[in-house]
Amino acid sequence: MRHKYHGFIGLGILVISEALMLAGVHPFTTWFYSLAWWSYILIVDQAVYHVKGSSLWVNRRGEFLFLIPCSAGFWMIFEGINVYLNNWSYINIPDETWIRWIGYFIAYGTVLPAIFETTELLEALGLYRNIKIKPISKTRAWYVPFTFTGMVFLFAPIFFPRYTFPLVWLCFIFLLEPLLHARGGPSLMRQWEKGDPRTFFLLLTAGLICGVLWEFWNFWTSTKWIYTVPFFSRLKIFEMPVLGFLGFPPFALECYVAYNAMAMLRGKGGWPRHEYGRAGKTSPAFMFLSLVLFIFIFVLVSRSIDFYTARSFI
């Protein structure tokens, strides 16, 4: 196994940027959150490589790089929903539009890599290694109720936002899991059919770990988000209402099913390592259309964030 040092580079960046951020040195007060997360991703990836002998960055770099725009695009969906729900706002963000938008991409691009790298590390360390359950019956009868539930969870916050806003952190699990199961992709339900819920619990744990770090690193930096959720705003840990931490574990499940659904459309890849049966490169036409769609969504939502979610600028 070759020696890798990217984790040490990440650790150095994390320590230096945190010290300078706490000292109030610009631009670390503005960019600390992204610096911290990319440092964390490098550190965890090296830890995974050290334990397993392989990792996303070292052995599956193409998939790692593909995760970044997928991550930014996926999180933009929630930013778009938040324009309507107004559950969080940004303060002290850069005044220059082009710098601000680059910042959106860099920050949102960390979401999927962070969750998947954390999950792989927990797996490499043997967490939940021996967990088994009684296999559930193999059937497709759950497709319709899952899809119906996902639709309800997606649209209920539009009509009753004050009371149902947490449901958006569950809707894509129910909407996309039947599709993955039917098409032979990485499916959580198929794993339960085999009596193996390990990935399910690893993702839940990784989601909670990342959630705590999201809120911890966000709390100290001057450029940050603050929450304006109904009912739960008084008792907080960092900026997050305490009950809000319950949303991070299922969000990791959403990331899993959403990314694998995107990989399925691409025709290759997936996480963990999975191929969808189509050899060769992804169609250039598909990649072009995906790029156009991503740019359209990114520009539209970024402008919406600027007008509706951003509360103050530097």
The percentage helix is 55-70%
Counting helices, strands and paired strands, the structural category is: mainly alpha
Question: Given the C-alpha coordinates, what overall shape results?
Answer: globular
Mean pLDDT: 92
Strand order of the largest sheet: 1-2
Query: How many beta-strand runs?
Result: 4
Task: Please report which band the strand proportion falls in: under 5%, 5-15%, 15-25%, 25-35%, 35-45% or over 45%.
Answer: under 5%
Count of DSSP-assigned helices: 13
Largest sheet: 2 strands, antiparallel
Number of domains: 1
**Unreliable sequence segments:** none
Instruction: Sketch the topology as an H/E string, one letter per element.
Output: HHHHEHHHHHHHEEEHH
Distance between the termini: 47 Å
How much is the radius of gyration in Å?
A: 20 Å
